[in-house]
Specification:
- The protein has 494 residues and is mainly alpha-helical.
- Helix 4 runs antiparallel to helix 5.
Length: 494
């Protein structure tokens, strides 16, 4: 059943929690930035990168989700702007990146568990492998129970994950060992100086990879747009609240943690995955450490289930558009796309045995390949629908095309840096992924069960929003709304 004909179950608070977990979920995993670039550049990065990257991506997501309130999300945007082939390839890159991203959370859970109880893990890695597989299957089961269950779990876990870090910050501030001078140090424990040598000494690949990974995926929630109540109102508000939450979640614990335990080169070198737990033990003993470990488990679990939702609903949305076999649109008795969940789980298990940094590097470049198309699609669609009489019925920022291009310029520069500093192997993975996606596109056109009557690249019928969008109703004389069509009619602008 198309998303527009279903009851839209996601409201504001669950959507905020889902966005928060898909992007952040807490400062888990940011520790590598400190040892790679030093305290000063880490704080500068997490203070400025959300402004040049996260804000534009959130704005684009809010605008296009209200224009295309369907589960194919960014696939619909790219298809509308550039045709069916580009939309399919962009969707494939996004799905590859999303699955790779989701494979990291069982790995991070294993890292925190191993830090807490190293005696339970054997040296050969068999215990870790069993742990990763068991966690993957256990968390996948939550997704089978429906999007409402995922939304409720995201809200509960957001509270569980945030409370220990609030306590961490409060205890750290009043502990007496916090030294603001630590904030200004380089990775060798010396005061940072604005000279070439300071930048040459930075380990740019892990620094940029981890920074970029922790602040992207704002568009992932677009593949749940068909499940969101009143998308024209809900998406802008949810993304705004989540943006503030993400900003505070990263910056405040980093300020406290660095101030307490980054005063020398030796201390700075200890900042690896899971190091916040070590600082918590120093500040509040086992009580605070245990609370932080529980938060890390809960947060990584929530990030897993929300990303799994986005990945599986994306495949369902593509199937509803006739871009994948219809089996991917099939729903379980809990109204969940179970085939997409199974496909995503298979990829996660495969990637769960790779090195953390290597997977982050790979998924970031796959994501860059996808997001470049999304940004370009946004500019094209804004110009195409600028005179549409219904344009005011969806969220739209009041800015000219040159102003929008100017807003995206720093983001394109950031993507250029991530691409430049990625490894040769990662660049090869991106090229191979694009070639595989193009090949799969040609295969799926002739596959049994694919709707080959659906428009292809040269048919402009597929370059418009689906039945839930007011723009489609305009072009068809106001006829074609589904049961969810009214959800997109709220007038919102900034």
């Amino acid at each position: 059943m198309p998303a527009s004909q279903q009851r839209r179950a996601l409201t504001l608070v669950p959507l905020v929690a889902i966005v928060y977990h898909e992007v952040s979920g807490g400062p888990f995993g940011v520790e590598t930035c400190v040892s790679a670039a030093g305290p000063f550049l880490t704080l500068v990065g997490f203070a400025t990168f959300p402004l040049i990257w996260s804000v534009p991506e959130a704005i684009i997501t809010a605008e296009l989700c209200s224009l295309f309130p369907e589960n194919s999300g960014y696939v619909a945007w790219s298809t509308a702007a550039f045709g069916r082939r580009v939309g399919w390839v962009q969707g494939a890159l996004s799905w590859f990146s999303g699955v790779a991203d989701n494979a990291l959370y069982p790995v991070l859970l294993a890292a925190y568990a191993q830090n807490a109880a190293p005696e339970l893990f054997d040296k050969d890695g068999y215990t870790r492998a069993a742990f990763v597989i068991a966690v993957t299957f256990a968390l996948t089961a939550v997704n089978f129970r429906g999007i409402e269950c995922v939304g409720i779990a995201a809200v509960v876990v957001a509270v569980v994950a945030l409370v220990p870090f609030v306590a961490f910050c409060i205890v750290g501030i009043f502990h007496g060992s916090l030294s603001p001078s630590n904030w200004l140090l380089d990775r060798h424990g010396e005061p940072f100086e604005l000279r070439a040598a300071s930048f040459e000494d930075v380990l740019w690949r892990p620094y940029l990879s981890v920074l970029f990974w922790n602040l992207n995926y704002w568009d992932s929630v677009s593949t749940l747009a068909g499940e969101v109540s009143e998308p024209g109102k809900t998406f802008p508000r949810a993304l705004s609240y989540a943006l503030l939450l993400v900003y505070a979640t990263y910056l405040l614990p980093l300020l406290v943690g660095i101030g307490v335990s980054a005063g020398s080169e030796e201390e700075i070198s200890r900042w690896k995955e899971g190091y916040f737990a070590s600082i918590a033990k120093e500040l509040g003993g086992w009580a605070l450490t245990s609370a932080l470990l529980v938060a890390s488990v809960a947060s990584n679990a929530a990030q897993f289930i929300t990303e799994m939702s986005s990945d599986s609903y994306q495949l369902a949305g593509m199937a509803e558009r006739g871009m994948l076999p219809r089996i991917f649109a099939a729903r379980s008795r809990y109204d969940t796309p179970y085939v997409g969940i199974i496909a995503s789980t298979s990829g996660i298990i495969l990637l769960g045995f790779f090195d953390f940094t290597s997977v982050v590097d790979m998924l970031n470049l796959l994501y860059v390949g996808s997001i470049v198309v999304e940004f370009a699609a946004w500019l094209v669609l804004r110009r195409r629908h600028v005179r549409d009489e219904h344009s005011a019925s969806v969220f739209r920022i009041k800015a000219s095309t040159p102003a929008c291009v100017l807003m995206l310029t720093p983001a394109f520069f950031a993507m250029g840096l991530v691409t430049y500093f990625s490894s040769i192997i990662t660049k090869i993975v991106l090229i191979v992924a694009i070639l595989v996606a193009l090949s799969l596109y040609e295969v799926q056109k002739w596959s049994v069960g694919v709707d080959n009557s659906a428009p292809d690249d040269d048919d402009d019928d597929d370059t418009r929003p689906r039945e839930a969008s007011p723009l489609l109703r305009s072009s068809e004389g106001g006829g074609g709304g589904g049961g969810g069509g009214g959800d997109a009619t709220a007038t919102t602008s900034v």
